[in-house]
């Protein structure tokens, strides 16, 4: 009989040791909730960063496409003396165009728009800039003589980029800064020698 009482008491003790109290359960649930919130907040920030990086690379690929078309003699409307370029003039879109009159810039109503790219998900072109050979940078958001547009054009047989704007300056490089709704930025830089890069400032 003493043996049975001892077995019953040991079973009660193991049951007590296996269970959680209400306070312990609430603490565990609270910790789990806080960790979940932190992970979800960082996940949305990570997604925003990935989308912005993808947009910057899409812009760089559009400039590279203009370079390939312009240098590889892509025919446009039975014309082989055509340059191809990209124009930035808006915060929400940019234009891929064919320079049909061969004057190495985009002329509205004369040159042909091949594609218009619209930026989505709250992303915008924050500013576009041209840097002269003397190192002077002029941007679309400059207070003195802002750029109304920026054209990056490639015309055969010259492999160099023709970077022009409403200012009568020929630029040695161009920079396009895109931003996300959260304020992150990426910069696409195009040198007149044809190099294209994306940086995370």
Topology diagram in text:
Elements: H1 2-18, H2 22-71, E1 83-88, E2 93-99, E3 112-118, E4 124-131, E5 137-139, E6 150-155, E7 158-165, E8 173-179, E9 185-191, E10 196-199
Antiparallel strand pairs: 1-2, 1-6, 2-3, 4-5, 4-8, 6-7, 8-9, 9-10
Structural key phrases:
10 strands, 2 helices, minor pseudopilin epsh fold, alpha+beta, 201 residues, five-stranded antiparallel beta sheet, elongated, 33% helix
Low-confidence stretches: none
**What structural category characterises the helix and strand content?**
alpha+beta
Overall pLDDT score:
85
Q: How much is the radius of gyration in Å?
A: 30 Å
The CATH class name reads Alpha Beta
SSE string, helix = H, strand = E? HHEEEEEEEEEE
> Shape from CA axes?
elongated
The CATH architecture category equals 3-Layer(bab) Sandwich
Strand order of the largest sheet: 3-2-1-6-7
């Amino acid at each position: 009989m003493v043996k049975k009482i001892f077995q019953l008491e040991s079973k009660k003790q193991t049951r007590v040791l296996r269970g959680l109290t209400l306070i312990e359960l609430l603490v565990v649930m609270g910790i789990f909730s806080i960790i979940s919130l932190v992970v979800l907040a960082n996940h949305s920030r990570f997604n925003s960063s990935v989308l912005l990086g993808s947009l910057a690379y899409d812009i760089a690929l559009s400039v590279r496409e203009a370079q390939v078309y312009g240098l590889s003699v892509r025919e446009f409307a039975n014309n082989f003396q055509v340059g191809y370029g990209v124009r930035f003039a808006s915060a929400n879109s940019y234009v891929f165009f064919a320079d049909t009159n061969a004057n190495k810039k985009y002329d509205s109503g004369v040159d042909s728009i091949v594609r218009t790219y619209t930026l989505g998900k709250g992303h915008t072109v924050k500013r576009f800039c041209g840097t002269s050979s003397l190192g002077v940078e002029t941007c679309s958001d400059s207070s003195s003589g802002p750029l109304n547009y920026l054209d990056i054009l490639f015309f055969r047989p010259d492999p160099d980029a023709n970077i022009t704007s409403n200012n009568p300056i020929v630029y040695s490089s161009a920079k396009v800064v895109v931003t996300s709704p959260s304020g992150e930025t990426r910069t696409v830089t195009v040198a007149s020698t044809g190099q294209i890069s994306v940086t995370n400032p």
